[in-house]
Amino acid sequence: MPWSYVGRRFGQLVLILFGVSLLVFLMLRLIPGDPAQLLIGEYASPEELARLRHKLGLDRSVAVQYWLYLKSILQGDLGISARTGTPVLKEILPRLLATAELSLAAMFLATFFGMAAGVVSAVRQYSLWDYAAMFLALVGVSMPIFWLGLMLIYLFSVKYPLFPMMGRLDMGMNAPFLTGFVLVDALLVMRWNVFWNGLHHLILPAFTLATIPMAVVARITRSSMLEVLNKDYIRTARAKGMDETVVILRHALRNAMLPVVTVLGLNLGLLLSGAVLTETIFSWPGLGRYVVDSLMGRDYAAVQSCVLIFAVIMTLINLLVDLVYVVLDPRIRIHE
After folding, report:
1. pTM of this prediction?
2. Within 13 Å of residue 67, how many CA atoms lie on the same side as its CB?
3. Which of 60, 119, 132, 138 has the greatest number of CB atoms lying within 10 Å of its CB?
4. Average pLDDT over the chain, rounded to whole?
């Protein structure tokens, strides 16, 4: 394992997070409107407004505000939510787990069905399967998430009520809290009614979120597989009489995985950003919906913390993708 490379990447991560924190901090200050005025209401006296601005630190210079913000982050304190008065970290953690559950489910759908469609399309090039898969991929990548989500709600929740339209569980149903993932926790304590109910709620938002990444994975897998299938070692494997399934899965698919892995890493970032819309449409109690509510309420501490968390996740995903390259293709070496 190239530990010096990993150490350098972690150093870059710190610099990136510093840049992101500064950028988001300054951009939030450019948004018109006074957060204190928004919180206290328009009928508050000037004295009450001044007290609240002092309490939130808004009466200090921007440089001092940023320094205090940076110092509190280094101490593991993400600040207090101006809307609710509770620590931001305490509010973010359960929502982060809800977003992670939705994003992982969408990632599973995008990877499994996208790669399957891409492989079939490449192996059956110019067949009906190929045309159908690429047509669906084109439709999927062209469809806006918010429109698709609303159409799915209308079709499968209103016109044909097969799936619930909002939330992680039915009203009144509680899930045990062990890991924060409803499905995993329900399985661990074998509460099957909670598991099926959670799965029922997850299907529509996960499918909505997975549509664009699924289409992208299908197209990239197809083009990468077509390139590999024309290589000499594939012809040699077939000439030796090797089973076609082994040729496709062991020799062709593995060597076609490098661009697919890159796309999968980028897709996870797409899922996180797409979760903002999906969670809002399906009232999913995740981080994306929390960001929207915080932005509407000018909750600086909450928005800054969420963006920082997104930046950390994206940087770690990119590092993981780089390390997976080495595992998939030993010819790739990371310079110490």
Report:
1. 0.78
2. 5
3. 119
4. 82
